[in-house]
Amino acid sequence: METVFLFAAAFTVFCISALVVAPVLLRPDAEARRIFSVVETERTDHRSTTQKEQVEEAVLHLSRGMRERLGISLSSQLQKRLTLAGIRTSSAPDIFFAAQFLTPLVGAFLGSFIAGNTWFWIFAFAAAGYVAPNFWLTEKVRRRKERIRRSLPDTIDLLVICVDAGLGLDQALLRVCKELALSHPDIQDELMRVQLEQQAGRPRMEAWEHLAERVKLPEITAFVSMLNQTERFGTPIVRALSRFAADLRIKRKQHAEEAAARTKIKIVFPLVFCIFPCLFIVLLAPAVLTMTSSLSGFGK
């Protein structure tokens, strides 16, 4: 307990020292102060900010200042992962960096309350806190990809209906985005980005290829390749979309059959470790008791 008390006291002193020294270390330099003096205004700000927004702004400011002081630049791989997870706000990398910095400290603080093997639990909880943000982001990316993969057949069916009704691919894409806003928001967001890139001047196929690189799903890659071949060779888009939708239905059926066949193997473990012991107890216990009583009577 003495070690725990010393660690808690040291942690408290560190936090107080950090709060005292942070305004000095994070103070803007002379050039930044000149810029602030130019852009500042005497007009009163009537906007109302909640306590949550103020705390988030303070954490972001502290995280951004620490990252700049330490010379840590934003990784392009981290930005791609955040984009794959559907997090595209400008403050997302700073929030993730703050989480990676704060969660190990919180884990170490919680581990210090365990009496036995205190230092082991401190390091274990700190390591778990450092890994937790990466694990959460990876799981969020995986779930979003799975939602996009499941919503792709319905999207292709809607595209087939719209194109078969006489709309062009771009107009059909806008119509499909409106229909998918509530049921499948993830793929609707990606399709809207394709449409916005086209409106900004990017060529159509380049925008679709950017979608395939951004989402990184085999189904999306195959769909973009089909569109590329259709535009290159002049194949009717309705026929190509119909055939691709039929292939997606077949793949979805095969995936369901594969998952159903896999359950036969997965159910073996609950049967062996949970159900069979109960059956053995119910079926064999009366026989064992009868044999025991018979043998005891035979001995007498």
UniProtKB/TrEMBL annotation:
It is found in: Cell membrane. The chain crosses the membrane at residues 6-26, 95-114, 120-137, 267-289. Keywords: Cell membrane, Membrane, Transmembrane, Transmembrane helix. It is a multi-pass membrane protein. Residues 156-284 form the Type II secretion system protein GspF domain. The keyword rRNA processing does not apply. One of its GO terms (cellular component) is plasma membrane. This is Flp pilus assembly protein TadC. It comes from Terriglobus roseus (strain DSM 18391 / NRRL B-41598 / KBS 63).
